[in-house]
Amino acid sequence: MISHLMRAGRGSLRVSDDGYAPGAAGLHLAAGLGLLRPEEQAFTAMLDGWGSQQMARRLSPGTVAARQRAVRAFAAHAGVFPWSWTAQLVDEWFTDLRAVRGLRASALRSYQEAVRLFCAYVTDPAYGWPAQCLARFGTHPVQVCHEWNTAVHVQDAEADPRKRAFTRDELQALFDYADDQVTVIRAAGRKGWLAAFRDAALFKAAYGFGLRRAETAMLDTADFGANPHAPEFGELGVCYVRYGKAMKGSPPRRRSVLTVWPWVAEVLAEWTGQIRPLQGPDGNPALWPTERAPRISVHQIDHRFAACRAALGFPAGLDFHSLRRSYVTHLIEDGWDPLFVQHQAGHRHASTTAIYTCVSSDFRTRTLRRALDAAMDAALKQTGRNR
Q1: Which of 188, 211, 248, 294 could in theory staple to 216 by disulfide, Cβ–Cβ 3.0 to 4.6 A?
Q2: How far is CA 17 from CA 21, 131, 132, 330, in A?
Q3: pLDDT one-digit tens code per residue, 98-138
Q4: CB atoms within 10 A of CB 337
Q5: Which helix (H) or strand (E) holds 225?
Q6: 171-202: per-residue pLDDT in tens?
Q7: Angle at which helices 168-187 and 321-333 pack, to 10 degrees?
Q8: DSSP 93-139
Q9: Which of 120, 112, 139, 125 is nearest to 54 (CA)?
């Protein structure tokens, strides 16, 4: 509900002789009753109708709720209802988000997109809101987000420049620290060594298969299978990712990730065969259970990873997603085919894989040296033939 400080729109509510407000347009009224708070109730009905439209596009409830919160935040900042919004009000709000709250470009654009989509809905004659507002309040909503007052997506990668892949030494230090915590906690006779073991295995699996946070958290023990072309990995030759990053309006994207390093299969075999049965209750399918919940959450993953990062003194740019960046980078550096790496990561376009790749200067130097040597050998062979 909008704050009582919000200024009311112009005009007054008009009710027909039989007591009904003109038009339905999502306003659910009891028979014979008018609107008690017409501005607030109309705005709430707009949000509800827009939410239904977004859900009809198969957007997730979380996405819909986040967009509705953004629109409510703008309405509260503007102090007026949608039929009184102007481009100047939205400019002031975006300026406040950027200058005062310091929102990143991607976050700012998500707010702008939410307001733009909401305005597109309430200005569409098919939903009847322009006529409703004109009849009730003497004015109608207009689109306030335009190309000339919203952020433009001008490049593929707009992530924080501090975000990067781990170097191989940093990655080894992370895994060693996670392993050491199991030994330290268990030697002290304290609770928590099972959780520490789970964290160490989880970090290694996320890197070993190039997984995102949600993909890692949602893994089940049944999400692995044999690869007939790599029998040495046994039943851990393929990781079936069922909760991959979804496109707009689509369900989670599935993909299969082949095991490329033997040590990943060894880590998972030890976890599932020896340690997990000590923590996971019978019948729980989750690969990463906790003491209090059947499955670890993405927030818990972030918290546990941040604790390890702080203990090692690593910069904030190394987050959990850096494990995925490292996976792509190290495969490229080790000479794996870029198309294979793209499919492993689940990227639709090679350009996305290129964004993830943070190759070291040593790799570039080796690549340049191989190219120069090949060119020199070809030139010498050509000279010999000419003689």
Answers
A1: 211
A2: 9, 19, 17, 74
A3: 888 888 888 888 999 999 999 999 999 999 999 999 998 99
A4: 10
A5: strand 224-225
A6: 999 999 999 999 999 999 888 899 999 999 99
A7: 130
A8: HHHHHHHTS---HHHHHHHHHHHHHHHHHHT-GGGTHHHHHHHHHS-
A9: 120
